[in-house]
């Protein structure tokens, strides 16, 4: 599997054999740039603040500062993969926004599956159309790669939450912006949108029919209505 972009990382594990094993697996992915391999989490913390890697490969059970504590001080780094012999730490790891959790010993197939997901994640980040500025009453600019794209607000049918991203669905194309749905609907350009579900907001004039369970849009898409949003939808047409 070839990665679509260079991705920088550091490896932190107090066990030399395990560090070398992770390095060995990573050699199959030449676009992964290993900025450092550390036995000391304190040294790794200092290095990570200086070189700002995109991925952390962290053991958990380490002296002085365990992997969970280290991740807690490096939350600005986009992805963290915990590599540990203790599966009971998984819940704590995911509460720290772990990207993945590999339990030693793991296979090359399991590592490849994680790397495929990591590649997709950074591909989305690099191509995301980042919301930039609202211009006028009916136009916004979003960023797609290095290009600024102008969208007509009246062509946007609905918004869909996808974790930290929001999918902007127009009459002809789908875009991704690195902004949560809850924040996006508060932008002044989206005043004509109504949130019908924690994962969906629709432009009012595209609503064709609705009931307590679903909304039918004018393009014949059907979206669910969340329990806590039913009253808001009903009040809209009273």
Helices and strands in order, then pairings?
Elements: E1 7-12, H1 16-26, E2 32-38, H2 41-51, E3 55-58, H3 67-72, E4 79-84, H4 90-95, E5 100-103, H5 108-127, E6 129-135, E7 139-144, E8 147-152, E9 156-162, E10 165-170, E11 174-177, H6 181-184, E12 193-197, E13 200-203, E14 207-210, E15 214-217, E16 222-224, H7 230-236
Parallel strand pairs: 1-2, 1-3, 3-4, 4-5
Antiparallel strand pairs: 6-7, 7-8, 9-10, 9-13, 10-11, 12-13, 14-15, 15-16
Features:
alpha/beta; five-stranded antiparallel sheet; 35% strand; 238 residues; five-stranded parallel sheet; 7 helices
Biggest beta sheet summary: 5 strands, parallel
Q: Please, how many helices? A: 7
Order of helices and strands: EHEHEHEHEHEEEEEEHEEEEEH
Distance between the termini: 55 Å
- What's the gyration radius in Å? 22 Å
- The percentage of residues in β strands lies in 25-35%
Query: Helix content range of the residues, please?
Result: 25-40%
Low-confidence stretches: 128-136
Strand order of the largest sheet: 2-1-3-4-5
- Looking at the structure, what is the overall shape? elongated
Structural class: alpha/beta
- Total strands: 16
Question: What's the overall average pLDDT, rounded?
Answer: 86
Description:
The chain is of the alpha/beta class and 238 residues long. It is built from 7 helices and 16 strands. A 5-stranded parallel beta sheet has the order 2-1-3-4-5, sandwiched between helices. The longest helix is centred in the middle third of the chain and has 20 residues. The relative contact order is 0.09.
